[in-house]
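Human:
If only I could read backbone structure tokens as easily as an amino acid sequence. I am handing you a single protein, as its sequence and its fold in token form. I hope you can help me see how the letters and the tokens relate. Thank you; the sequence and its tokens follow:
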Amino acid sequence: METLDIHCQTIMDEYHASFPLMEKMKMVVLDKLQQTLERIGMEVTAVEARIKTEKSLTGKLKLKGYKYQNLGDITDVLGARIITFYTDDVDRLASIVEQLFDIDWDNSVDKRRLHQLDSFGYNSLHYICRIPSSLYCDPESPQLNQMRFELQIRTTLQHAWAAINHDTGYKTGIEIPKEYLRQMNRLAGMLEMADDEFSRIRTELTDYRRRVQQLVQNGKLDDVQLDGDTFGSFLHARPLDSLNRKIAAINQAEIQEVPLMGYLRVFKAFGCQTLGDVSRIIKQYSDDAYRLARHQLGNTDLDIISSSVGMQNICIVYILSQGGGRMGLLRLFNAINGENPQNELLAEMTFNQAGNLPFMNNK
């Protein structure tokens, strides 16, 4: 262990004595941050906290011990960090953190505003905080509301860059050749652009989904290209509910909800390019899908049906009306169930169930 002067050793003794309290404080900070993220529904890469090790604190005191009167003057003995996916989330979290904790504004810093050429990985938002008694209070540990801790908020790319820089010695006072310094700065610029682009793309995708939802609500389905997002919005409007209820009434059955996104590839295989194409198939073949369901369920006592029954029967009717036969049905079941030997038997049984229904002759 490195030898410290009397003043620094006193601070180190205070560190040892306060360690159990800092452990408790760390758990409180992590718990409150995780609860808040869950409440607002934000997904992040990580929420973490650490207490400075004895070795780390000793090194700091050796270098700067003269700056501190006591342990409380060292604001990062306890450090917490939230790593976000997007730059936009940093600002959103900042506003929440400012309401959650008491902020020591004189010692907090937004390093993003420094605009240094080589500072991308160090552009974290740094808050020096206290836990307000209104958030958490333990009468047996009143010091917990007096001690400060550091909270950093940064993006995943910023965090990765900072870790790489630390490993290479780029920001640790080790001088590296200008050739490599220039390359590192170029990479920093590229990563900063990538961070901004990810946020821009997310914003544009959100706007796109809102426009799609509006078009779906207004019935302008021919203006909406068929893809995963738009098909999801279409299903959210529950276009098969009426048909499913009608089918369920055959046996007074209960409807069990299941995902229908697997039918996207089916409709694409049918040649659908817009939600309007999908909607027309549903409207055109719903009556025959119901007739098929009567043949399937009429002689059974099945009292639970899947919410996919309407969609599946529409696809079956469409395939058979187009002359797809058994092979067309097999491709359908392989698409929605995954390839397995049972699909061949299911295709044969379904083909036979359709029997001489009118749509079988529309080839």
Summary: The mean pLDDT is 88.
